[in-house]
Amino acid sequence: MTGTNPVTPAIAELLSNHERTLSETAKLCFKACHGQDEDPGKQTLEAVFQDSLQLKVKLNELEKQDGQMAGWDLLASFINCEYQLFKTNKVALRYNPWLSHWVEVVRSWTGNEATFQRRPGLTTAAPGLQQILKTRVEFVKVLLSTSNTSETFEHSSPLEIFLCLQDAPAKDFNVDEYVRMLEEEGIYEPAGSTNVAEGSVNRPTEAVQRNNCINKDDFSYELERDPVTALNRLNTLPVDLQSLELVNSLLFSGSLDDYDPPRLIQDYIQHALRYVERIGLEPHGLQEPSVAVTTRGRKDDQVRAIKLLILFVRNLLARGVINPQSSYFEIQEICVRFIWIKEVRDFRNDLEAGVW
After folding, report:
1. Are 182 and 100 in contact (CB under 8 A)?
2. pLDDT value of position 185
3. How far apart (Å, rounded) are the C-alpha atoms in residues 318 and 274?
4. pLDDT, tens only, 86-98
5. What is the DSSP string of 82-110?
6. What one-character DSSP code corresponds to residue 156?
């Protein structure tokens, strides 16, 4: 799957099969996209995300189509696309770039709780639209709430999943848990906070104000007194030159040697991506910074922050602190979400060329 064009008719047909298992359909789709000899485990960073983007485009088409597809074909297409999107992006849900998509699938069903009507002797009759949409929602709930879901369902067909979820829909699922993850990562505006879009902004908290002026000596002192609090503060720093210089200084002075530096840096990069994403969502004309964003302007500031982050990651790769494998999903997200920035394209080309 290249680009963000719709999937080919051949792949769309594979996705619409309701009797084949999810894993078998996924294998056939991959071969149809990339050839018989391609190894899924050796895909380039861009290819993985491009595959995911095409699945999302297909899901958007399925949501908007007006009766062009129905019954088992529509159900299978929804289930196969959601499964492959989940399977392709096996990363902690908090940092999964598609978590907001799954949350919106569940939330969109709120207040529309139609029940399955199971009729004796007609259990394999083609489902109606409400049953299809409800099955999709239940399937997404289980994807989110079960760590080994992909393995649990990989040998089941969309038909079997439909029948299973009629008998045992997801119980005690609370979407607020996942909404909070998105709020904490800066994707969603925290509940109860002031709505920036309505012309008002949140005041910086004391912690954010402190973060803006933190220096290496202060941090080192705090690290000795309260390591947990100090390390958590790294993931509240903005993406600016001062903060990145601080992280570099701490890292290469040995101050973080006892605290698993690769993991700390991976966490910081994940936070930085959420931060940069938030900048792009802020409106123009803010007179004061919000809690999450300390810069004014929006797109220009986002580009500036991404350029700084690229320089930071390049330095970490060059000095062996991280590698493309250990930071696979973070690097994927940078290379796809911000591919419109020249420095990101150059970074991606260097990765593809094996510079690191």
Report:
1. yes
2. 67
3. 24
4. 988 877 787 777 8
5. HHHHHHHT-S-GGG-TTHHHHHHHHHTTT
6. -
Contacts of 231 (CB under 8 A, 6+ apart): 223, 259, 264
Output the CA–CA distances (angstroms, integers) from residue 128 to 19, 42, 164, in the order listed.
17, 40, 16
pLDDT per position as a tens digit, 84-138: 999 888 777 877 778 888 999 998 875 455 444 444 444 557 889 889 999 999 9
Cβ-in-10-Å burial (0-12, 13-18, 19+) of 304 comes to middle
pLDDT of residue 94: 78
Instruction: For residue range 208-225, list pLDDT tens digits in order.
Output: 333 444 667 778 888 888
* Separation between Cα atoms, residue 207 and residue 233, nearest integer Å: 9
pTM attached to this predicted model: 0.57
Element (H, E) at 351: helix 342-352
DSSP 8-state symbol, 189: P
- Cα Rg of the chain (Å, integer): 23
CB within 8 Å of 87: residues ≥ 6 apart? 26, 150, 154
Please, what's the b/e burial string for 339-352 (b: 16 or more CB within 10 A of its CB; e: otherwise)? eebebbeebbeebe
Residue 192 in tokens: 């109860």
Q: Is there a contact between 309 and 343 (Cβ–Cβ < 8 Å)?
A: no
In this structure, what token pair is assigned to residue 315?
Answer: 């330095």
Looking at residue 136, what is its pLDDT? Answer: 94
Do 101 and 43 meet the contact criterion of CB atoms below 8 Å apart? Answer: no
Secondary structure letter of residue 8 according to DSSP: P
Angular region, 170: left φ>0, alpha ψ -120 to 50, beta rest? beta
Contact by Cβ (8 Å): 82, 158: no
Q: Check: CB of residue 194 under 8 Å from CB of residue 290.
A: no
Q: Which two tokens stand for residue 241?
A: 């030159």
CB of 52 closer than 8 Å to CB of 89 = yes
